[in-house]
Amino acid sequence: MLLIKCPYCGERSELEFSYGGQAHIVRPLIPSDITDEALTEYLYHRDNIKGVQAERWRHLHGCGRFFNAVRDTTTDHFQATYKIGEAQPASGAKSDG
Amino acid sequence: MRLYSGFALLKAGFNGQKNWQSLWRSPEPKPAYDAIIIGAGGHGLGAAYYLAKQHGIRNIAVLEKGWVGGGNTGRNTTIIRSNYLFNESAALYDHAVKLWENLSQTLNYNVMFSQRGVMMLAHNVHDVQVFKRHVHANRCNGVDNEWLSAEQAKVFCPPLNISANMRYPILGAALQRRGGTARHDAVAWGYARAADDLGVDIIENCEVIGIRRDATGAVEAVETSRGLIRTKKLGVSASGHTSVVLGMAGVRLPLESYPLQALVSEPVKPVFPCVVMSNTIHAYISQSDKGELVIGAGTDAYTSYTQRGGLHISSHTLEAICELFPMFRRMRMLRNWGGIVDVTPDRSPIIAKTPVPGLYVNCGWGTGGFKATPGAAHLLAWTMAKDEPHTINAPYTIERFRDGYLIDEAAAAAVAH
Ligand SMILES: Cc1cc2nc3c(=O)[nH]c(=O)nc-3n(C[C@H](O)[C@H](O)[C@H](O)COP(=O)(O)OP(=O)(O)OC[C@H]3O[C@@H](n4cnc5c(N)ncnc54)[C@H](O)[C@@H]3O)c2cc1C
Ligand SMILES: [Zn+2]
After folding, report:
1. Furthest-apart CA pair in chain A: how many Å?
2. Under-70 pLDDT residues of chain B
3. Phi, psi of B278, deg, nearest 5
4. Angle at the Cα of B107 (from B87 to B43), degrees rounded to 5?
5. What is the pLDDT at residue A94?
6. Comparing C-alpha atoms, which of B298, B307, B294, B308 is closest to residue B264?
7. Which of A36, A40, A76 sits opposite B304 (nearest CB)?
8. Beta strands in B56-117 (DSSP E)
9. Smallest Cα–Cα separation from B159: which of B290, B297, B276?
């Protein structure tokens, strides 16, 4: 089981969190103004990266707040967690193992 | 290819079972092929076989970064059924079940397809309503599926605990008698042997690291760990790694890759006659012919390429198994492992042309594509050979998400095994 560091509460067990998928996907301000392709991209297409990716998490059974994380999907190692609205921290090596 | 038979086995017995041929050659890659398939799982090997057998294309290679059947084909719990809700799904999965029924004869290789029945348990009113709806929808589509009371379910599967004071009592079950299991490795090996016999080059330890396109944008070659190989027809059947491979050609997909786990127990004498699935409490169980209980767990909650999975996921499944079958409480688990499954938003697969000319994809089978192996293989081969889909896979495009024609088995079943 993973330990995940909530930016508000500190390290807690993975079971307290829920996963929210790829981070920094911006909701179109006026969906009716964009093309079907752009809406498909927003709704369905995902980077699904093998390596380091930014993703959304929620400390569901804790403070309940959303935050972002940078995780390596080849090791599940969390490189950083950061608050919503903060910029994605520069990640180190592509993979740590 | 030397044919297998009872007589051949007997004859080889006089020589101490020596001198059996290896099932496929290990050729060096040629500089060019008429068609290349990426991924030597059951789907990719089967597609190569059908391309050679039914479409007359003989100069084919299957490129595999690891070994034949080392992906999800060799990691799955082998549940086969076709009682899906929607018309498109019933057509697709039943196409596969019909091919399974003759596959051992077709390939001259015993894939140990065993129609021992797949029983899905209903634990609450919602389950009962959903399963009855499935039974009726399946009947309209000519797919067998029947409703059993809890007592009838117990008769079909005697180890089942149907007492009323369980945490998740059993209110009934849906049974597909034509469903069952097959031997996972045998499917990959059988297709590999038959494809090799038709001249297909199966190239293991050959990872595709790039896809080259010509000035018109069409596929012209793949870059691999064993050099550049040219082709104008490229089929991708890379399951959990499909996003990575199609990313090499700039194609975006509605996929996310998750670890899915399974476990086997120590082998015991035959105790378990069928396959039992519980979507509600996430447990799937059958007994292999070797005697191991084969148990399927759920996916992790987050995407990953680690090919393992959280221990709490498998322990949760074992708790459910122990409650459903109290006699298994003292069984010891022998091994557990994970595979990376490619999941679409509607939990239905994609078998289609891509926006790149000459590039075809078979993916999105997620947690439940083993059952479809012969069908998916046949349809991918058809689509590659004719450059257009078969009527069965015509709805399974990438564009269905843009166009709003989802085949929403996710909403219909919540879990898709
Ligand atoms: C634990 C578990 C239980 C499951 N249980 C069931 C079940 O009970 N019933 C069911 O129907 N389905 C089940 N599934 C799903 C099923 O296993 C898959 O949908 C199916 O086997 C996919 O077959 P495939 O041939 O497409 O993929 P795979 O067998 O995964 O083959 C893909 C191959 O592509 C190769 N590859 C990837 N990238 C590259 C590259 N760049 N270059 C070269 N090769 C590459 C991989 O090494 C792999 O061998 C389960 C899956 C898992 C993990
Ligand atoms: Zn918190």
Report:
1. 44
2. 412-417
3. -130, 105
4. 50
5. 47
6. B294
7. A76
8. 60-63, 79-80
9. B276
- What's the distance, CA B53 to chain centroid? 21
Atom of ligand 1 minimally distant from the CA of B42: 25
Q: Which CATH class is domain A3-83?
A: alpha beta
Residue B297: Cβ within 10 Å count? 27
Report the chain A residue with the minimal C-alpha distance to residue B403. Answer: A36
pTM for the model: 0.96
At a CB cut-off of 8 Å and minimum separation 6, what does B129 contact? none
Return per-residue pLDDT of chain A as tens, 97 residues. Answer: 899 999 999 999 999 999 999 999 999 999 999 999 999 999 999 999 999 999 999 999 999 999 999 999 999 999 999 999 999 998 754 443 3
Q: Which fold has domain B3-75+185-254+346-412?
A: FAD/NAD(P)-binding domain (3.50.50)
B237 vs B44, B62, B115, B179, B190, CA distance in Å?
Answer: 5, 10, 27, 24, 18
ipTM of this complex prediction, to 2 decimal places: 0.93
Dihedral pair phi/psi, residue A38, rounded to 5°: -65, -35
Assigned token pair, B153:
């379910």
Cβ-based neighbours of B234, under 8 Å, separated by 6 or more: B35, B36, B37, B38, B211, B219, B222, B358, B359, B360
Specify the CATH superfamily of domain B89-181+256-343: D-Amino Acid Oxidase, subunit A, domain 2 (3.30.9.10)
B361 φ/ψ angles, rounded to the nearest 5 degrees: -135, 140
The owner of tokens 């790829």 is A22
The amino acid present at B263, given as its one-letter code, is L
User: What is the reported pLDDT for B412?
Assistant: 65
Distance from CA of A12 to the nearest CA of B (A): 15
- The 8-class DSSP code of residue B103 comes to H
CB within 6 Å of ligand 1 — which residues? Answer: B 38-44, 63-66, 70-73, 75-79, 207-208, 237-239, 241, 245, 260-262, 296, 339, 341, 365, 367-371, 417
Exposed e or buried b for every residue in B134-157, given b needs 16+ CB within 10 A? Answer: bbebbeebebbbebbebeebbebb
Residues B111 and B190: beta-carbon distance below 8 Å: yes
